[in-house]
Design a protein that fits this description.
mainly alpha; elongated
Length: about 70
């Protein structure tokens, strides 16, 4: 069973945030434009999805490193 009270790394690394935001927005706008939808809405959705995926990947990396340090 997982320890629910373990200390996690809560530091945020904002060094690549602008790259993540611009690439997510550009990809969303291109996809929306190709589908004939509003590019601004596609850009907002692209930014949100890219931040969601980045957050999930960071959380998985943090969980993997903390479980490896116990071994």
């Amino acid at each position: 069973m997982k320890n629910l009270f373990k200390k996690q790394n809560t530091e945020m690394d904002f060094s690549s945030l602008s790259t993540i935001l611009t690439s997510g927005a550009a990809a969303g706008m291109v996809i929306a434009n190709h589908l004939g939808k509003n590019p601004q809405t596609g850009g907002i959705i692209g930014v949100g999805l890219s931040l969601l995926v980045t957050g999930l990947m960071t959380a998985l990396e943090d969980e993997t490193t903390s479980s490896n340090s116990k071994s």
